[in-house]
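Incident review: delayed structure delivery

Summary: a single-chain prediction request sat in the queue longer than the usual turnaround. Root cause was a stuck worker, restarted by the on-call engineer. No data loss occurred. The affected request and its eventual output are reproduced below so the record is complete for anyone auditing the incident later.

Affected input:
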Amino acid sequence: MGARKRNTAEKRNEAKSTVAIAKLNNVPTSPRKMRLLADLVRGENIYSALNMLKFNPKEASRNMEKLLLSAINNWEQKNEGKDATSADLVVKEVFVDSGRVLKRIQPAPQGRAHRIKKRSNHVTIIVDSAK
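Output delivered after worker restart:
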């Protein structure tokens, strides 16, 4: 490996050491509905994001709240001895990718059938300190 590649790899690994990642696959909610919540919490402080998700009436907010708690816990395990309350953590990135699509048939009049797509998604949350 050349010196330039090694230096960039070291910088990348150093940047990864401060962040914590949590991922949830095959959530049975359409990606469009989950992206509404992702846009709501992106860039927010973790406690305000948790409050938003806790009191949001959407069903997908329960899954997102659990995932955010998991990301916070991952950060605490990665940075041993540090507490999340004093670290001023922020939801750095949230992205929602489409997952598998279950294709089902809905009976229609006169012997016809309509296709129904039951969509799912993959959610990834990255938590980092604000500094």
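Verification: The beta strands are 20-27, 89-107, 113-129.
Action items: add queue-age alerting; document worker restart procedure.
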